[in-house]
Amino acid sequence: MNSVDLQKIAERSRTMRQTGFALLFASVILGVFLLIPQGYAVPTVSSTDMETATSTTPTPFTKAPITAKAAIVYDLTTEQVLFAKNADAQLPLASLTKILTVYAAVATLGTDATVTIPEDATRVDAPRLFQTGQTFALSDLAELTLTASLNDGAAAIASATAAYEQRSTYDALAGAAAALNLSQTYAVNGSGLDVSPSTSGGYGSAYDLARLSGALVATAPAIAQATTQMEISAASENGRSFTVKNTDPMVGSFPRLLLSKTGYTDLAGGNLALVFDVGIGHPVAVVVLGSTKKERFTDASALVSATFAHFAGVPSL
Length: 317
Fold this sequence. Notes:
The chain is an alpha+beta fold.
């Protein structure tokens, strides 16, 4: 073989190597391109966009139609929105306002503080249970108040927090909301009772309430846990015992429950906030706002079932 033939072979080999490198590089670029959804470079989904995302990409939540005006499934561990429907809309909270009231008191006073029932608290609308002058440990009063959605208990707790901070109930609750960066949440009173036919006692978004519910579970787990029982008992400082039933009739059917709170007024419709564990130390919040008195429970149940299916990696349970 002469020198000319050797030169041709060397050039052909060099050309083949260059072609191979080019094909490899093109394959890598194509692979990266295929991994990125077309139309945008960074796949971020806001809470308000999640409903559209879940409707175009089949997930367990696609098969969970709900009647509520707003709803959210929020992973409190990863801070990810798993499902949302109008999750940033500011809506009447009804008795979900009591979650903010109790959180504000626990954060300000501590669970061992004592709270005395003032006279004006005994004049609020039912449900109410207490008498003027009765004194409770905050933890006991909060458990009774949240579980049975007692308006007099909520008014007393809000009053004690405001008095300690030397400001109005509105400002005390606003301070607690601001501390958690709840931008859509505020309360006129501690109970969430409608102030008028057109004004609620508290407003907030499903997104805010999911984070607020998670904060109460993290800050006062024993108080939150009481709301997962069908019936609880607690005593005043003078030893008088009180037993109340849960306003959530389905509380026993939700698995691994950490918190349950109902809310209903004519203005708000049916509301429900739940926190439950999908694994050890992995809490998820489900909130529905503006449903009906009955369908708030079926809405939440459908979302809880879809959440467990999501984490199990199956279409449905």
